[in-house]
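FAQ

Q: What does a record look like?
A: Structure on top, sequence underneath. For example:
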């Protein structure tokens, strides 16, 4: 199955609630590669590569996030995979 790349911007109460760390753990369980990082405006950016099924699972998780999070919106851009990531991590 072809790998794809999704670029997600998550808005809401998503910083200071372990959103990035929880996303990293979930992404590694699902088997996608990429990264999560905080943005200066309070949102979280997630770039992930995997199959459509894997990316859909990650997006569904991102809609809820960890228990202390409140997700208001997710913007998604669907792109071609670049294969540049060897795993999923947190960027600062």
């Amino acid at each position: 199955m072809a790998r794809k790349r999704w670029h997600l911007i998550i808005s809401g109460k998503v910083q200071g609630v372990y959103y990035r760390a929880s996303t990293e753990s979930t992404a590694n369980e699902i088997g996608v590669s990429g990264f999560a990082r905080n943005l200066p405006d309070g949102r979280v950016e997630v770039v992930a590569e995997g199959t459509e099924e894997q990316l859909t699972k990650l997006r569904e998780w991102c809609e809820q996030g960890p228990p202390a999070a409140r997700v208001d919106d997710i913007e998604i851009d669907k792109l071609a995979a670049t294969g540049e990531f060897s795993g999923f991590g947190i960027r600062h």
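Q: Is there anything notable about this one?
A: The two ends are 31 Å apart (CA to CA).
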